Amino acid sequence: MSANSYEYKLLGFSPELDWRPLRFVSPLPPAMICSVCRLVHRTTCYLLCGHLLCIRCYQRCRVDDALVCPLDSNVCPEDDVLWRNFPLESLARAQLSVSLLHYPSHRHSTCAFGLKHVLCFLPTI
């Protein structure tokens, strides 16, 4: 990763973007990045210990009616978990680095435009 970009893998925003590495000119807000797997997931939760988990990591850490944080082993009751949902538009403030996606364009565009552009040209898997 270059000094001028931040690479993330998104999950839960759209099938076309899931698991694809995308590079941004500026870092995404920490509230969008899972403390365990480092994925940018659409649905995340805050624990009392201050760590943030995506829904996938949350499901792996549930024990009865509580959650055991995989990073510090603190127990957090499910009632104390704060959930957040990020729509695709929440990425609009970040700058998607189009040139780092192996496209001919060498300019940066905002995510609101950039993601739509990328969706048009992503190869199907």
Automatic annotation (TrEMBL):
Domain RING-type intervals: 34-73
Matching InterPro entries: Znf_RING, Znf_RING/FYVE/PHD, Znf_RING_CS
Organism of provenance: Haemaphysalis longicornis
Stated name of the protein: RING-type domain-containing protein
A single GO molecular function term of this UniProt record: zinc ion binding
Swiss-Prot/TrEMBL keywords: Metal-binding, Zinc, Zinc-finger
Domain of life assignment: Eukaryota
UniProt entry tagged with the keyword Glycoprotein: no
